[in-house]
Specification:
Layout (H helix, E strand, L loop, with lengths): L7 E5 L2 E2 L5 E5 L2 E5 L7 E9 L3 E11 L25 H20 L21 E9 L4 E7 L6 E3 L8 H12 L8 E5 L20 H15 L3 E5 L5 H5 L6 E6 L2 H13 L5 E5 L2 H9 L7 E5 L8 H9 L4 E6 L2 H11 L5 E9 L9 E8 L15
Parallel strand pairs: 4-6, 11-12, 11-14, 12-13, 14-15
Antiparallel strand pairs: 1-5, 2-3, 3-4, 5-6, 7-8, 7-10, 8-9, 15-17, 16-17
Helix pairs in contact: 1-8, 6-7
Length: about 400
């Protein structure tokens, strides 16, 4: 019987795909189901049918997984912010580690063993220091909804409290709810500024303060293993990595396209009396070649921390052509990371040493990763893992 929209089926969940949806099969067709766990038997209703796959909504869990727990948030299952509150935290960590390894293998062609153990968050709830809420007029109830987009439609889920947000953020949310935006479609950013860091309103800063020390530690250890005295911090934002690592290098340069972020980086360095660095405003592709002429080629490590969309093809070529001995890639999107790592390792330019996942975003599909690469010419003395199939 062919799978059709509206059909109700009993399915067994075989896997969880990156993004949080469960993977099941009906008559050989892949069916994606949200809010499930591996091994569960569930009753679903087909909501979308494509030639290669279908999507379904969960009606009930017939045989639950031992990993299933009661969600902490009453909005879970409607709000699009979280995907994993129905799973115990240890299960979330296992899932994310497997998803990173699977993406690196499938997209990048790397041996899954290259992925180090995931670093857990000490605070799985109440960690976010920034959220973005939206307004939408609720016509039946004649009031303004304030919250997040639902996962299944374009409506705004009216959120009284965000369980993954810092308590101070929820205090701000209550003020917005008490005096909501005047019309639908407006966004309001709620943010706790990091202590003693200048961050312009639209500039990026990691949204989990509790995990920042771990993230810095992973990047610092990769830098120290490279044994290079010079650092170039690309997509440096307000200068976070360059400033945090300044004591471990003779000199560093930060490059960022956003001029306001560069001005903030200069202020942040001055506040911390960091005098061995310089921050430049411009495109990485334009500035990096000249910056690299300042330092001996075999004594430079590059750090890249690009947006979610990853590196442009031009940036990849620029990094491959660079003569730096090591590259540390910080990414919040494992799929684009895997794509870029494959391109960076092409033509025997770099060799992937290790990828360390960090759970910067508990209860959600997202995961941060730090990838450590070495120039092939310098890789002989390092312990590296071959890409799969090599």
């Amino acid at each position: 019987m062919e799978v059709q929209v509206g059909q109700q089926l009993s399915l067994q969940i075989e896997d969880l795909a990156f993004g949080g949806e469960g993977v099941a099969r009906a008559n050989g067709l892949v069916v994606f189901v949200p809010f499930v766990a591996v091994g569960e038997t569930v009753e679903v209703e087909i909501t979308e049918r494509k030639p290669q796959y279908a999507r379904a909504r969960l009606l009930r869990v017939i045989e639950p997984s031992p990993d299933r727990v009661a969600p902490a948030c009453p909005h879970f299952g409607r709000c699009g912010g979280c995907q994993y509150q129905h799973l115990g935290y240890e299960a979330q960590l296992r899932i994310k580690h497997k998803q990173v390894a699977d993406l690196l293998h499938r997209i990048g062609g790397f041996n899954p063993a290259v992925v180090a153990p995931i670093i857990p968050c000490p605070q799985p709830y109440g960690y976010r220091n920034r959220i973005m809420v939206r307004s939408q007029w609720n016509k039946p109830e004649r009031r303004m909804n304030v919250g997040f987009l639902r996962w299944d439609c374009g409506l705004v889920e009216d959120v009284k409290e965000c369980k993954i947000a810092d308590p101070a953020i929820n205090q701000q949310l209550q003020k917005v709810r008490a005096s909501p935006p005047p019309r639908s479609g407006l966004k309001v950013s709620l943010r706790i500024p990091p202590n003693d860091w200048v961050v312009p309103p639209d500039s990026f800063f990691q949204n989990n303060f509790a995990m920042l020390p771990k993230l810095v530690q992973v990047v610092r250890e990769a830098l120290q293993r490279s044994r290079t005295p010079y650092l170039v911090d690309l997509y440096c934002g307000v200068g976070f990595f360059g400033i945090e690592l300044a004591a471990f290098v003779k000199a560093f340069v930060g490059i960022e396209y956003d001029r306001r972020a560069i001005e903030a980086a200069q202020k942040n360095a001055a506040r911390r009396q960091v005098h061995n660095g310089e921050f430049l405003s411009g495109r990485v592709e334009d500035l990096l070649p000249a910056v690299l002429t300042r330092f001996p080629a075999d004594q430079v490590t590059l750090i890249v921390d690009p947006p979610r969309k990853g590196l442009t093809p031009e940036a990849v070529r620029c990094l491959r052509d660079a003569s730096a001995v090591a590259l540390v890639y910080v990414s919040c999107h494992p799929a684009t990371l895997a794509r870029d790592l494959r391109a960076l390792c092409a033509h025997d330019a770099y060799r992937l040493q290790q990828v360390t996942p960090l759970d910067m975003f508990p209860q959600t599909q997202h995961v941060e990763c730090v990838a450590e690469l070495r120039r092939q010419t310098s890789a002989a003395s390092a312990v590296a893992i071959e890409p799969a199939g090599s």
